[in-house]
Automatic annotation (TrEMBL), chains A, B, C, D:
<keyword id="KW-0315">Glutamine amidotransferase</keyword>
<dbReference type="InterPro" id="IPR005854">
    <property type="entry name" value="PurF"/>
</dbReference>
<dbReference type="GO" id="GO:0004044">
    <property type="term" value="F:amidophosphoribosyltransferase activity"/>
</dbReference>
<dbReference type="InterPro" id="IPR017932">
    <property type="entry name" value="GATase_2_dom"/>
</dbReference>
<comment type="function">
    <text>Catalyzes the formation of phosphoribosylamine from phosphoribosylpyrophosphate (PRPP) and glutamine.</text>
</comment>
<keyword id="KW-0808">Transferase</keyword>
<dbReference type="Pfam" id="PF13537">
    <property type="entry name" value="GATase_7"/>
</dbReference>
<dbReference type="InterPro" id="IPR029055">
    <property type="entry name" value="Ntn_hydrolases_N"/>
</dbReference>
<keyword id="KW-0460">Magnesium</keyword>
<dbReference type="GO" id="GO:0009113">
    <property type="term" value="P:purine nucleobase biosynthetic process"/>
</dbReference>
<dbReference type="Pfam" id="PF00156">
    <property type="entry name" value="Pribosyltran"/>
</dbReference>
<keyword id="KW-0479">Metal-binding</keyword>
<keyword id="KW-0658">Purine biosynthesis</keyword>
<dbReference type="InterPro" id="IPR000836">
    <property type="entry name" value="PRTase_dom"/>
</dbReference>
<feature type="active site" description="Nucleophile">
    <location>
        <position position="38"/>
    </location>
</feature>
<dbReference type="GO" id="GO:0006189">
    <property type="term" value="P:'de novo' IMP biosynthetic process"/>
</dbReference>
<comment type="pathway">
    <text>Purine metabolism; IMP biosynthesis via de novo pathway; N(1)-(5-phospho-D-ribosyl)glycinamide from 5-phospho-alpha-D-ribose 1-diphosphate: step 1/2.</text>
</comment>
Length: 507, 507, 507, 507
């Protein structure tokens, strides 16, 4: 699927109370951030399936704050609740959980990458097939979603959402196979791109991961009941035991007969997305067998190895830069200090009354801790650089607070290419590193020095000797341009101009 | 579609503030009322298409109070707003109308007859077909909706609503014809039952009426722009000119080339639903060329002709009994008095604190006007009798207020059979007249005498000599059992037990 | 204007921002209506005091639709709920009633006459005095409220509302008497104007009516428990028994010792407000011993006696003109017809898209019933005339629908003077009859003839030979200028310009 | 005023959408936290007074999350908005700011210490005095508020709130002085306890701080306009310049004539509350001339000096324990690690489905970062200990994650006594340290060792040689029992049983 945003529809919802704008964070205003696409969760056989799913989604909230949904099955009917807003806004309420009875459930949190944030796009999607009900939650993005959609509509399909995920439902519905799992696998074979799926039928909980394993999916267990989740932190939240990662290309099925693993695709070397380590996953998660926290510390230590100016303090850009800054500090011996305080009550965009105030630097999200900075030479550590607008403000804020030198380090390489697998990045024209030299970036940001983690350094911090161009271990296309799959939709004429839906702003 | 109600889903909506219960009227509590199914409206070529549609729907509000929707087309995209609640709750607001740009629009008000009252069932339904967008608003009910739905799902269709209307979209999507109107007509040929449709494509406004013309649909004009509406009162509201009724079996198409009328069905004698005259249509509407008000007065006059006890005053059961009571009074010479006052602030069900108070007769909706009744022999006139529970309460209220005799008259014949064309009636077991003799009903209601308008009298009041059993002029099956179409869904095994949707209470 | 304010209220409360504008009805837009001030209710000693009070207020809803409140006392604490909107919006909900425990309660419905419609002005007002809690609900308006307010603030009082009612609380708080009833009576002695009060302390339910009895207040009984209410319809709603009217100048006290009546004022001839009969009271109420319905019919019959053009039908302006039209019809023998249909789903102001539509007469509230009018000479009967804007529209609507002659009759005399006792009327400049001759009015309204009920005719319809200028039986100052009390606040410099509160638009 | 909580009223609000429960944080469930009382802000002479006040309050949000309010003055009228919820929920919206015109404004954020969290208690309070309008925002708590309230009610005052702050309004209203500042100072002389006030009249912005300076108040300047704020972080947020702290006992007045400082009280040694440094103030604020961040680091370093077990890592309890943990790490050389990850999406209490899950440790707010802990000896640093329930859970969570030893350190002394100046602490019976020995606490918490910062160590970290019992430099009564003022209300008979208001749950 491509990255088209139908922002015209964003304000549209039947729900008067919490439109998406209620959750616009100030980062969003200038788009200077990475945004995760989704998180998924599923459980089979537990009496409190929906309540546990709600907790699991809450632990995955960092993967998507715009909407959340749960579908449960009670033995005769499916029940669905899908809402805009945070998990806790809706799914912490007893009456909502009571409307989701049954001992199997799948859930989803969403940051919209395709399709406007409107209620009909909130997942899990549900369809009544001839075989019975079928619910799907999807993390990732298809690179041939639009192409498949067109083919299906031409064949008479009527789409109810504007998401790429819906094509999976229609592919299953149109399959001529008689066995449900065969139909599902036939559908997967048509897909291209990234997908970690949790699916629910009236008999089974199904998990699936694309052949390259671009997005994560783990398998755990609570009181004997199998669980699927995007990250291990969701297992920790509910006291569940981690069993293993779902393998790339694996289809795992849980039903009354137990667990069955299918491997319908020819084996290929995995290419998990390196951004899970850099930014997306929670630091207490273990992704692909590695502690995210430790990897981030290693990125920071590697940064110190690659270049180390003479400074007085290491200051993280909170919160995502903190582990790398700790790693940098521990490796370099330079003291770690909270030179920037993060205001946790963000979430609304206030009126900024006058130009003078705007220029003097209203700080809704970050403020300088002058006592830790004044008269010091500081090194700032952030996780990654997208547009650079926030970085520029932070550097100026540091100087205003009395820093005598400000060095800026990114715990990841320069982002040069867009992503098509579920990360919401600007076009190349909007990526600072794709359009500016290092020196131009340094000057624009206003730092005394600027450095990025090297690509080989990134691999080294993850235990590889260096990146192997013939067989890179990770999906690192944003840094290298080496995309791991076809990008079929990109070959459509003017795909970015294409009107994804004829129905604007629909409720 | 059959008349199954999925009331379990009624409480389900994304809208936190006004669940359907906010609109529960006290009649609804004992189901002792007729409920209309829907009203439709469409306009083509007017700059203020949506604002005019909102006004038209407001005039049709009596035909459906549970939800309302408008779809407009602006030349490149469709725009849709569908909400639970009254038209004025949503569509009186400028910002909502501004989200519905374009010079063509169709709208719908709904009292759910099939499918729970959930947002995804609110019409007009919209689909993106290969040919482009297609919106449909439907008044009526299909008698083979469930059968068609099953066939379509078997062929791979995924339904987004639980309404019978959606099968029309899928039939069009699956048609092999190349011309859109041909596809549409092919779809209509598969339908059985009652339908008055307004449809919008990116080129056309289309109206259609089932071959028997069971539900009404009129054609008018405002400032040169064609209008379709369920009743003439919607034309009056906006100052539009009435042109003619859409004929039974007619498909009318408005586009840039003008107006085209298609008659794809072999001609048959029309069978418009007589309940439009008895109860549903607004008294100031002209239906099938007749003033509804005058027909109701004629029913009342005919009642007086058929039996006239010696009484002091004629008292209408407000508001629907008023025209018949005026007719009765004018024909009989007995004074017309407001013996019952209607409280127009109903809409909520209050706690009725104690049994004593309940028995003493808390009157949320009606109260006795003692001054007009005390010491009098009265004749009460109501439009029709369903369960009889309200009638019993009203008779007792009249006696408590001092009436010395209470005679009860219904300005329609006894209802003996259910409807399958969009009127929400109880099963036969719940219809008082289907299960009790006249004398039993009189005793149960507590009246001194009870009489219904005769079937022949009803026809006579409408200008016929009597009902012609070989060729009845109206759909009068609720009184006679003579259904004008096949009832295919009724032959399904246990149709009333059938689970309409696997997804309960979905949002 | 009509006394059934029907469903203008029904649609509300979906509106989250419930500023007063949410309750603007379309009548309000041109101010062409009489608006009632308030209704009060109280009960003592009943286990379901609050639930019964809610029902009583619902029956009094026509007296005030902007806000409602209940204060209860549970033996140790007072409980209060005060909300903008209709009674049923809030007080039909079990959880609200459960927050109002206790066996004594007072309630109030409000149409603001003084003070903006903000929550702190919603009654009953409550204060914690040294003697304990004290709640007051007030129907009427003080003519020295502003003067008293200024004196109290000068003495150090801090007002929490902008209502005139609050001065009563402060007068009681500042009284030096030791006995509570003495303090209360001392406060009443300072008041000038119209007041019917229901008050609650931790021991007593108290009712009081001003010395002239301008506003109504009745005393009833339910299951042995005393009740106070503005109108008998509130007693009927709950099945309570009417005992008697509270007398002008009476203070009635209910406590554990029983009932005590105080008459602290020297006796004077009563002057009840005649507008209760003309417009305000519900037709099924009995006010001052007279059926409101019968009085209105008598006004209509008297109108026919005073002038009777040769017409074909009598048409009421619904709903308030209906009883007078029935009286006119019965006296004159001219048939009564529903020539105007009222839309009960008003309550919102829709966008009126184009000038053409506006001029062609969009009718949100009334529509012409052409069948009853076309080709007829009609006589329209309305209750009263304020600005005349609605009357003009209705006459034109009748002509557009084919009436050949339109005669207009008002079942009350011309309104020439403002009211200061709780009726919200325009200044003299806004009163049509105060600024135009009869012929000018007729021309402006566009009627073929125009006539008002004569003042003597009004008295005659109420059983008097004529108005006795030396001792008029009713407060009829709006017709005669003969105000029954001093108007102290009117002598303040620029009283109408005076800023009632320094705090604008407070929440 | 005392610390009585009227929690029965909490659910009560005029605001349907976000009752206080929406903001219940999970800490609140077991009361194991310190809660700040309030923050205040005021500005004089700026065109964007209200927008700037909204930003200032947002920066002070950590001082009170239950409600917020702003009162502005536009030269002729006052405008007020007071709402439950966060500042950003209401005051980020343009239409709200536009309802607060004028160039002077005062604002308040509140965590209720007295009076239920109901709208009428939300500050700034406003009164219309004879001299004109008067708005007051108060941080702190009076220790004779209840006594003064009783005296005022006895004299005829009617209170509109249940806060201690309102007595200030009434004392000013009842003063016999003619000059407003004289009246205000006369009122202050009657007060006992802690107060930092911002007040607005139609001419002046006034700040005042109690004679001991228990609560902070700073004076700054933006574009030539004076600002008052609880903390310097509010000045930083808007780019304002810090000028100086308001002195203990100082009354500062800003008007068209400029700034005037009054010192109406005899000078006394200041006793600022030490908890501002320990917990309440934001780390980037400078309180009493000291960086809060640096003081907290010094507390951590002092902790390391006082006892230092042999451990592998220092782990802060986030977020409040972070600066002390950094201080400890830097002093001891033990690596600082994020062993606990804080979930920033808290705010709702989810259903915890089964006992098994509850015991296995559902972590809504904190989760263990196993990679940083497993196999390690850790030392946990938290700011203070109230009930100990959270500490016990965290220790167990650390052991579950594989910590081999868990040592617990508090960067403040044991809390032994309640506070009466605005900090919401449990009674002595609820304070763990007041009822358990150190060893009992260690065992209860489950740590391998437990230590608190010593009282002298606390003073030493702040630059004093030790605490001087004859003249302690800070209000440290929670640790020492040495209260800096009289506690008049505590001598009332059964003050904690006293019913603060006769009106329960009033809106």
């Amino acid at each position: 699927m491509d990255q088209h945003h139908d922002s015209s529809g964003e304000a549209q919802t039947a729900d008067l109370d919490f439109g998406p704008q209620a959750y616009l964070r100030d980062d969003d205003l200038d788009g200077d951030t990475l945004r995760e696409e989704c998180g998924v969760f599923g459980i089979y056989g537990h009496n409190d399936a929906s309540a546990i799913t709600a907790l699991g989604l809450h632990a995955l909230q960092h993967r998507g704050q715009e909407a959340a949904g749960i579908v449960s099955y009670d033995g005769s009917r499916f029940h669905s609740e899908r809402r805009l807003g945070l998990v806790g806004d809706t799914f912490s309420r007893r009456e909502v959980i009571e409307r989701l009875p049954g001992n199997a459930a799948v859930g989803h949190v969403r940051y919209a990458t395709t399709g406007a944030t409107i209620l009909r796009n909130v997942q899990p999607l549900f369809a009544e097939l001839n075989a019975g009900g079928f619910a799907v939650g999807h993390n990732g993005n298809l690179t041939n979603g639009l192409t498949l959609r067109r083919e299906l509509v031409r064949a008479g399909a009527i789409m109810q959402s504007t998401t790429d995920t819906e094509v999976i439902l229609h592919l299953v519905a149109h399959s001529r196979r008689s066995n449900f799992i065969d139909r599902f696998i036939e559908a997967l074979r048509a897909l291209e791109g990234a997908y970690s799926l949790v699916c629910l039928t009236n008999k089974k909980l199904i998990g699936a991961r694309d052949p390259l394993g671009i997005r994560p999916l783990v398998y755990g267990e609570l009181e004997g009941c199998p669980i699927l989740a995007s990250e291990t932190c969701a297992l920790d939240m509910i006291g569940a035991r981690y069993i293993r990662d779902i393998e790339p290309g694996e289809v795992i099925v849980f039903d009354e007969q137990g667990v069955h693993s299918h491997k319908p695709f020819p084996p290929k070397p995995a290419r998990p997305c390196v951004f899970e380590y850099i930014y997306f996953a929670r630091p207490d998660s273990v992704v692909g067998g590695r502690s995210v926290y430790e990897v981030r510390k290693a990125f920071g230590a590697q940064l110190a190895r690659e270049s180390h100016p003479d400074v007085d303090v290491v200051v993280p850009v909170p919160d995502s830069g903190v582990p790398a800054a700790i790693g940098y500090s521990q490796h370099s011996g330079v003291p770690f200090e909270l030179g920037i305080i993060r205001n946790h009550y963000v979430g609304r965009t206030f009126i900024q009354p006058t130009q003078a105030i705007r220029e003097s630097g209203v700080r809704m999200k970050h403020s300088a801790n002058r006592a830790a900075i004044e008269g010091k030479r500081i090194i700032l550590i952030d996780d990654s650089l997208v547009r650079g607008t926030t970085s520029r403000k932070i550097v100026r804020m540091m100087r205003d607070a009395g820093a005598t030198e400000v060095h800026f380090r990114l715990a990841s390489p320069p982002i040069l290419y867009p992503d098509y697998y579920g990360i919401d990045l600007p076009d190349r024209g909007g990526l600072l590193a794709a359009t500016h030299s290092l020196e131009e970036m340094r000057e624009l940001i206003g730092a005394d020095s600027l450095a990025f983690l090297s690509i080989d350094g990134m691999y080294r911090a993850m235990g590889e000797p260096a990146r192997d161009p013939a067989a890179p271990k990770y999906a690192d296309h944003c840094f290298t341009g080496s995309y791991p799959t076809h990008l079929t939709d990109q070959s459509l004429v003017e795909p970015t101009q294409h009107q994804l839906s004829l129905l604007a702003e629909a409720s």
